[in-house]
Amino acid sequence: MKSKKVNKLLEMNANVLIEEQIQGYKEYRVTVLNNTIIGATEKISASITGDGTHSINELIDDYNKERSYKIHTVDYDYIKQQGYIKTDILPHGMKLKLTNVANMSNGSQIQNVDLESIDPMNIMLFKQINQVLNYEISGIDYLGDLSVPYMLMGSVIEVNPAPGINIHYNVVKNKNTFLKSIVDNLFK
């Protein structure tokens, strides 16, 4: 059953692309270089935790003071959907998401994922994507759980043909080993 908004779009232009929206899964970036997975990170949407004293806007300011990647686009409609407005005092311990988009350049937290924890079926999928697109390097954005085969729980949402490596470099424990793996991969 089509919604009224979809029908209106179809009336305006017959060439409409409708994408499925998937929610509730973890979001990852997996980078493949020359058929080798060189990094995987979990992207966690920017959020604040209430202290019972400060307003949401004040907590957002504090959030930005503590991070090199600051949130620049707060989704106040999304905050309203969670039952708050920007001037509300967030109760102590209450966690509030500031946006439903996990993007490092918009204040998301990034956590390194151990490559050994990625299910072999997912590794095969990511390598195949890179090969089919004929990319030397690709940044694959994935929703699901990397430790569970993609056919049971997962979806590729985007493939970036020129991804940055900062998303991995900023969170790996041994930066020299990470860089060496890239150089070794390029010159094998």
What is the CATH T-level topology of the largest domain? D-amino Acid Aminotransferase, Chain A, domain 1
Mean pLDDT comes to 89
Strand content: 15-25%
Distance between the termini: 53 Å
**Which strand order spans the largest sheet, edge to edge or round the barrel?**
5-2-1-6-7
Succession of helices and strands: HEEEHHEEHEEHH
Q: Please, how many domains? A: 2
What is the count of helical runs?
6
CATH architecture title of the largest domain: 2-Layer Sandwich
Low-confidence stretches: none
Report the radius of gyration as a whole number of Å: 19 Å
- CATH C-level label of the largest domain: Alpha Beta
Q: CATH superfamily assignment of the largest domain?
A: ATP-grasp fold, B domain
Task: Write the topology of this structure.
Elements: H1 4-12, E1 26-33, E2 36-44, E3 47-49, H2 56-65, H3 76-81, E4 95-97, E5 109-112, H4 120-132, E6 137-144, E7 154-160, H5 166-169, H6 175-186
What do these coordinates show?
- With 188 residues, this protein is α+β, with helices and mostly antiparallel strands.
- The chain has 2 domains: 24-44 and 109-186, ATP-grasp fold, B domain (D-amino Acid Aminotransferase, Chain A, domain 1, 2-Layer Sandwich), CATH 3.30.470; 47-106, no CATH class.
- The protein is 29% helix and 22% strand.
- It contains 6 helices and 7 strands; from the N terminus they run αβββααββαββαα.
- It has a 5-stranded antiparallel β-sheet.
- The protein is globular and about 55 Å long.
- The mean pLDDT is 89.
